[in-house]
Amino acid sequence: MKLRSRILLMLLLIFLVGCLLAGISAHFAGQSTDATQSKEFAYRVLKDTYEFSIVSQDFLLAHNERPLEQMQRKLAALSGLLNASSPIDHFQKEQYALLGQRVEKAHALLQQIVKEYSDQVRLPSIAPNPRTDNYISHIGELAQLMSIQVFEINDIAKTLFSSADTSQQNAFRKLLVTFFLCFLGMILASTLFAASFSRLFIRKINVLKNGIAELSAGRFNHPIILQGKDEFAELAVAFNQMSESLRNSHEQLAINHQGLKEEIIQRRSAEHKLEEINQKLESLIRERTKDLEQTNRRLAETLDVFNQFIRHSPIYTYIKEVGPGQSKVLQASGNLVELTGILSSQMIGKTMEELFPTDFAAKITNDDIAVVSGGKTINLEEEFNGRSFHTIKFPIHRGDKTLLAGYMMDITERKLAEEKIQQMAYHDSLTGLPNRELFSDRLGIALAHAQRNKKEVGVAMLDLDNFKGVNDTLGHTEGDLLLQAAAERLTSALRKGDTVARIGGDEFVLILPELKGMEDAIQVAQKIVDSFRKPFLIDNHQLVVTTSIGIAVYPNDGTDERILMKNADIAMYQAKQAGRDRYRHYKKA
Question: 3-175: which CATH topology?
Fold first, then answer.
């Protein structure tokens, strides 16, 4: 039987015993209630009897009609109370019957007394009458009998009350005994239940405890055997299965332990070998560390030399990180402080807008974005702070990120040299005016433009009258100063867009483009002649030097440079022959 079923059966037995004892207790409780009600009823009877006896005593003392009426009411009440009585045993039944008889006798005697008393009242009372005395003597006898009946009724009532009180006490004692027996029965049943189950539990628990002790001692071949099909038996089966599993695990663990010991031996051997290798590696690392330290020192020295080289070289280097709409400095050479006035360490992490003026910063940023996005190297020349730089920018790929590297070379001196060479190649070294080469180039352009637009171009050739005499008299230095002053005076007399060039000695040639007619050329020539009539102040000497001008106009006087120059030269000599200090227009012979 299952343990649960046994517990339910025992609880059912305890419940039945409890119901039986509760029924007995209810029975005795009912008896106790009846006894209490009987005692209360007897008390009421005793009370009415006592009151009747008091009224009877009043009658015996007073002999008037009023007590008789009270006695009648009390006897009627007592009779009604006796009719409603419910005795609880045979003794009370006999006593109630006897009390009823006494009450009936008392009632009969009371009726006779009332009748005699009524008859006595109707007799005349003026004089003594033997008949009246007989009536009074008879009423006194009846009253004595009534008194005896009252005392007997009172004694019977007291006996009834005492009997009811005794019955109540007996019923209460029975109820207490019954409650005690119920409580004792419940304790006994619980004790028997506990003893039965504790004996069963202790026996089976001892069997389980012994099995666990065997298992904890490492003896797996001692299964637990319990009869029955309750939970203890199931627990024993589960314990035996666990013991078997532990035994198998123990055997497997022993096998694994042996394998582990062998593995530990192998690992110790490997650790010994690893320790030897580690010592060799440490020795090698120390040697490599020493080599690396020497290499780092040499590298630091080289880097220092390189930094000094960069610092004193005209090459400025930098590396930037280019993002959307901005270019930020990652590294910069120290010599950039000469260019920007900002230390390279302070440039790190700053954008172009934080380092340069807005327009220049925007140009640099756009160029950097173009290099990174296009992945190509660019060469460009830049102007900053009045100096010229040749800049090369190119991308550097680092994983998934593309950086920008660049270097700048200061080419200001070279640019100045190139400009000087250019000046020397196409300008007169004394006056700074265009020379024959530049004059020929500009004249070719003017003629081509005139040909396309159907315009006229004037070519005027002039020299200084009597310049040789000034040069011979005052010397070449004053002569050169005169030529420079003449060049300035010629330049101030020309129109915007005209060109004056010195082609040798004191000879100058003019290009007058966009002529509307010969009148425009004559107007310029006359202005020049007039301006030369003013004295030149040369080294505190006032010199009056005039000029002779010959004019040839495209296309009437020639269509190319050679013919125009030739005809202008002819016209100039015609002006000299005419007396100098004047101009002449070329005319065909």
Answer: Four Helix Bundle (Hemerythrin (Met), subunit A) (1.20.120)
536-538 and 507-515: which strand pairing?
Answer: unpaired
DSSP state, residue 471:
H
For residue 387, which amino acid is it? Answer: R
DSSP assignment of 296-335 equals HHHHHHHHHHHHHHHHHSSEEEEEEEEETTEEEEEEE-TT
Q: Which residues contact 477 (CB under 8 A, 6 or more apart)?
A: 539
Domain spans of the chain? 3-175, 313-412, 427-585
Question: Which tokens is 112 given?
Answer: 């006779």
Question: For the whole prediction, is pTM greater than 0.85?
Answer: no
Tell me the pLDDT of the chain averaged across its residues. 81
Q: Retrieve residue 457's tokens.
A: 């171009």
pLDDT of amino acid 129: 47
Strands 582-585 and 547-554: parallel
CA angle in degrees (0–180, nearest 5) for 153-159-164: 125
- Residue 160, judged by CB atoms within 10 A of its CB (0-12, 13-18, 19+), counts as buried
In this structure, the chain runs to a length of: 589
- Which stretches of the chain score pLDDT less than 70? 1-4, 6-7, 21, 25-32, 34-35, 37, 56-66, 68, 85-88, 117-140, 143, 193-194, 197-198, 200-201, 220, 222, 226-229, 232, 303-314, 423-424, 589
**Check whether domain 313-412 has CATH 1.10.10.60, yes or no:** no
Helix (H) or strand (E) holding 588: none
> 427-585 is classed in which CATH architecture?
2-Layer Sandwich (3.30)
Query: What pLDDT does residue 575 have?
Result: 95
Nearest Cα neighbor of 509 from 498, 500, 521, 496 is 500
3-state secondary structure 175-198: HHHHHHHHHHHHHHHHHHHHHHHH
